[in-house]
Fold these 3 entries.
Entry 1:
Amino acid sequence: MSAKLIDGKLISASVRQQVTDDTAAFTAETGVTPHLAAVLVGDDPASQVYVRNKERACGKCGLKSTLHRLSDQTTQQQLMDLVAELNADESVHGILVQLPLPKHLDSTPVLDSIRPSKDVDGFHPENVGLMLQGRPRFLPCTPHGVMKMLEHENIDTAGKHAVVIGRSDIVGKPMAGLLVQKGADATVTICHSRTTDIAAVIRQADIVVAAVGIPEFVKGDMIKPGAVAIDVGINRVNDKLVGDVEFSAAAERASAITPVPGGVGPMTIAMLLRNTLEAAKQSL
Ligand code: NAP
């Protein structure tokens, strides 16, 4: 392997330490403990693990977290009522509704109903708009985590061709939005399932961000020698976690690469903690 490994565990630990210190100072000064309310509907095993990890991380950094577990029989109205209750609760600073929701529930009205000042995932249309205009309230956690990794590794994005694979509202689109902002200054191409000759597009990239959800979708020979490969994908294959990038072959050509697990995943949680602290600060 010739690429430098971008260690998400290490970088996220430093972000979490900073959040821990800042939270301690904030709580000492104001008497307020930042509080994240997480909502988990149903019993999807991966979601349970994600929520547990988020709760644990909150505790370690001095943040309060409360988990609201709802059965998979929950109605749209019951879920919306819970969000309304959390919106009104002044002791709650951040609200997180773990996705995906069971199939009978529509996530769009639920996410739209979260008060933007408590939307620590950064999914609300108001926060997406502010982010795109370059005056963010909360940055979406996964794309923000990727930007933080690039910054930590001194990878300059200015003038670079960044190819983002995936156009979801939670990863691909906001990722492209952050890379193109003034300050980041990348030239951005977004690929999706209708992109023609995607391999040729990826081969032009100085920075590849893969958020597809298909194991090893990006083959090693699609990576331009010296490019940076950021793997957002988390796919379970025979009880093993595999990314969207064919890691060993890509690592032979890339200058830097993120592993799965231990890459972008831990960064997402760290940025959620930072947003929760920010929400508490902004609430005063
Ligand atoms: P998603 O909503 O399913 O979006 C996947 C995107 O990939 C879509 O835009 C889709 O295109 C595109 N795509 C699918 N097949 C393709 C193909 N054959 N060629 C080109 N593009 C294709 O997924 P997501 O929520 O963005 O998540 C993506 C991955 O990241 C998943 O593995 C997820 O588990 C992981 N993830 C990780 C973190 C983390 O913290 N590390 C956080 C969130 C998500 P269309 O729009 O045309 O359908």
Note: The longest helix spans residues 8-30.
Entry 2:
Amino acid sequence: MVKNIAILGSTGSIGKNALKVIDALGSSYRVAALSAHSNIQLLAEQIRRYEPGFVAVTNPDYGKNLRESIDELKTEIMLGPDGLVEIAQLDEVDTVIAAVVGSAGLPAILAAAKSGKQLAIANKEPLVIAGQLLMNLANQNNSTILPVDSEHSAIFQAMQSGSREEVNKIILTASGGPFRKETAENIKNVSLEQTLAHPTWEMGPKITVDSATMMNKAFEVIEAHWLFDMPTEKIDVLIHPESIVHSLVEFVDGSIIAQLGEPDMCLPIQYALTYPRRVAGIARPLRLDKIGSLRFEKPNLEIFRALKLGFEVAQKGGTAAVVFNAANEAAVEEFLAGRINFVNIIELIEDCLNKHDAKTTLSLEDIFEADSWARREVAANIKHTTQNAGTN
Ligand code: MG
């Protein structure tokens, strides 16, 4: 049977890797729909190569000229954010790979869950800010959520060796970022340049900063909490500088099952597509003899306050996680622009969470409202601080 796939965000790094994986999987996997925001040139190339029935261009200004560049092809083009929601629920689509940056893909992801699609989720925001809403919708409509984030894919894979009731806890691994050896005192003075030098994974600037603050792992705790219906007491984080063990599951009998592999997103993408089967693909097998040793250590939660906060936010649920995510996005933007210091990122987030009156029941409106509240709050806070600094 052919599996028809929609890739939301096909011109980004996950989207491009997903197409590579589909190429290697052969003719039982078909590209049925694609979407892009602004990289129309690459989207047109992808359309000519894969001939999907449908594409969505979320920024309508960029989509206007697409018709001309693919003239003879029958692909239906849908413009604007609604187009994304439409391709996510097409009858022709079995599996949706959601790889749209940030929270922009959320309405489409919820629509896919409502239509009972298999949903492979690659970015963190959907589960972080709308985990409860998304999992409820998926459960009600028999939609399977398949993690593509490497740690969650590892946990999902390890979980196949026992029943849900036999799981004692899950252990997320973290590279620890560039500052895993820093003291609380030293971390106050780290520069933007030092922050952007990540030891193992090569990623965009926002995610690299999130890895240095360990915010990334805090988000993954929240993701795991919803995805695997796991209370925070049963989630652990271990620093593992080699980034080879992608995560582990401890079962009630004391056995720990881990998933290992090269740091390469193609493997988790492929497993999400072929699950519950395993097939030969493009991922290179790991050479453990070349790696030699694997280290694990406990993260220092006094230094990595974001991680500590992540556990609290996961427990609180509701709009707290929305504020956590949005305040971080706003603060990281300020840091990347050179307007605040590294430690100010977590201070701004903490301040924002302290002022926030969290709602427990969630709708998309609540999510977007809490999101813009947090961004306004961070902006106001920075303005206030720089004004004060100016008068001193
Ligand atoms: Mg990850």
Note: The radius of gyration is 21 Å.
Entry 3:
Amino acid sequence: MSVLVYTEHTEGKFKKSAYEVVSYAKAIADLMGTSVTALSIGNVDAADLAALGNYGATKVLDVSSDKVAQFINQAYATIVAAAAEHTGATIVVLSNTFSGKGLAPRVAAKLGAALADGAVELPQIDGDKLTVKKTAFSGKAFALTELTAANKVVALNPNSFELREMGGHADVETFSPDIPADDLRAVIQDLVRAADKVTLPDAEIVVSAGRGLKGPENWPMIEELADALGAATACSKPVSDAGWRPHSEHVGQTGIAVSPNLYIAIGISGAIQHLAGVSASKTIVVINKDPEAPFFKVADYGIVGDAFEVVPKLTAAIKAYKGN
Ligand code: FAD
């Protein structure tokens, strides 16, 4: 009985969500009186692997075969399930990121495990039962899910659990499970990254704009605010459909789901399909000239005003604040 945590990286560098899941797995392991083994797939520096010990991993299994240098859903699921069997882990933790959403159900199926995806808090543990609070209905509600199977998979929403640094280094061990050829039938040949300064799913602050901006020529104002805050930019669906912004920025039910610490919505009405992708944000600020805009109902802070007047003033104030 132990906890296995799968840690995601981008081009050899761990994402913040990787440290979050290790901290989360360690907190679960502490409740169970057991230890955490982390799993890394792809090519990550040995020093970075060992540094997972700082967040509570005792051991790191390193799968650095070139065959799986890029994310391949089927193959990664095989490796995670093999690592769980190898370590005797009964709980597998991973991040509910874009890749994690594909991986978690596959791992659960392979292990015959119960699955809770979209976890937002530390579970309650009662004997062999885990009660997990998770988002439901595209983030519009929370569900308490009881996992009673012997094996359990929990996928944690990014930005839902704080990083807990505790010092120390983990032992790194090479792990080379069999990867059936069938798992390698769909392989990524090339990856062209969006040129974003901050990637949207990982961003802690998101500045998002909608049709209220009138046209693509007005986005420099949004980018300037995002730059001042170190934020990623996002948009509503009609904006990307119209080609004003790339589809990689479209958030919502049919786009990317984000859960930043701060989501600033500018000239977006707050349709239910948009809210489905952003309502897990910790703090929501809405700027809209219509006081009846539905977005205000879910806003923590709202500014009723014309974006073309409010946004430049906000950017100037942030720059002045940071200048001091
Ligand atoms: P609008 O609804 O046109 O709203 C513009 C807002 O800007 C208004 O509230 C207006 O008051 C305000 N405004 C105008 N001028 C100014 C100004 N000068 N200053 C400040 N405010 C101003 N949408 C998504 O975003 N994501 C999705 O994933 C998504 N999926 C969908 C899936 C389905 C099946 C369907 C049917 C729809 C989906 N939609 C999605 C579309 C969604 O229903 C809305 O149509 C869309 O979100 C509206 O975009 P918007 O708020 O930018 O535009």
Note: The mean pLDDT is 94.
